[in-house]
Amino acid sequence: MIRTAVLRGGTSKGVYLDAADLPADPAVRDGLLLRLLGSPDERQIDGIGGGHPLTSKVAVVSPAADPSGADVDYLFLQVHVDRPLVSAEQPCGNILAGIGPYARLRGLVPPDAGTVRIRMVNTGGLVVATLGPGAPGDEIEVALEFQETAGSVCGSLLPTGNVRDEIDGIPVTCIDNGMPVVLAAAADFGLTGHEALAELEADGALAARRERLRLRAGELMGLGDVSSATVPKVTLIAPPRGDGTLTTRTFIPHRCHPAIGVLGAVSVATAVGLPGSVAAAHATGDDLVRLEHPTGHFDTRRTSSGGAAVLRTARLLSDGTAWPRSPHPHRS
């Protein structure tokens, strides 16, 4: 058995664990997490995962290794639903929104802490989370200001060295401001950019063309062969329908995100402000960049320091004990 908490962070849901409660060996740890969440199984019926990439996430939290620079360390692990694979190659900004509330819950910071400095172990980046008031179970407003995010995965903000490239005949901007993203106009794929998720996911020709682009972009961004990786993401952009800056459809990397990830949004918003990028046509004089997505909108604001701040909410859903399935084969 293992002590667990489940929190909704932004538009994701994850299992939050103390690092001290997990095996030190990463391979042993990952095996435990697969059994805990119920993978591989598209329903995750024998675990506490939610059967979707957005609900099969784990946050591992510990006191900061360097208390002078951060209060807590946060390692994000993506537990794949349909494969026996746990990935640590990228952070998750939505699950990040729950780290401050979890740190208060576990006594890693004072229970009334208004700010929590979080070191993202996946990238080394620092985030300052400003927390609103709230008791356990309340929805808490969380402002996340990202520090040192440019090139945190690929090594530079523009990993190809260009603000615009062309891949498979399509103009793209490859950017990493916390999350490697390939931006392209939906119109260049014969789309309006306002299609429903189900329609996009059912389009086999779109998937094949998008994956060719993603694989080539991964090479150009210095990520190597990304055929089995979850980055870079592909975000298709289009003019907004409402009062947003632009409309987005993001693939993670094969399913269409019902919203947009926090760090992906930061990268997209940064591209909006880069003259010559495929998103620059949507730039305004305002630092606020509102990204419309399939289920609403996401606000991010560029900061004078070159970072970005986003506003999310988090809520504790449960706190208790979970029993991973046995590592030995069994019959259902």
Describe it.
- The chain has helices at 26-37, 93-96, 99-105, 197-201, 204-220, 262-272, and strands at residues 2-9, 12-18, 57-63, 72-79, 86-87, 115-120, 126-131, 139-147, 165-167, 170-176, 180-185, 233-238, 246-251, 288-293, 296-302, 308-322.
- The chain is an alpha+beta fold and 332 residues long.
- It has an eight-stranded mixed barrel.
- The longest helix has 17 residues, at 204-220.
- The model has no long low-confidence stretch (mean pLDDT 94).
Keywords:
single chain, 332 residues, alpha+beta, 8-stranded mixed β-barrel, 33% strand
Q: Helix proportion of residues, in percent?
A: 10-25%
| Helix-strand topology string | EEHEEEHHEEEEEEHHEEHEEE
Compute the average pLDDT. Answer: 94
What structural class do helix, strand and pairing data support? alpha+beta
Oligomer kind: single chain
* Strand percentage: 25-35%
The strand count comes to 16
Low-confidence stretches: none
Tell me the number of helical segments per DSSP (H or I, 4 or more residues long): 6
- Globally, the shape reads globular
Largest sheet: 8 strands, mixed, barrel
Distance between the termini: 20 Å
Please compute the radius of gyration using only Cα atoms: 19 Å
Strand order of the largest sheet: 1-2-3-4-6-7-8-16
Keywords: Isomerase
Pfam families: PrpF
Protein name: PrpF domain-containing protein
Organism: Actinomadura gamaensis
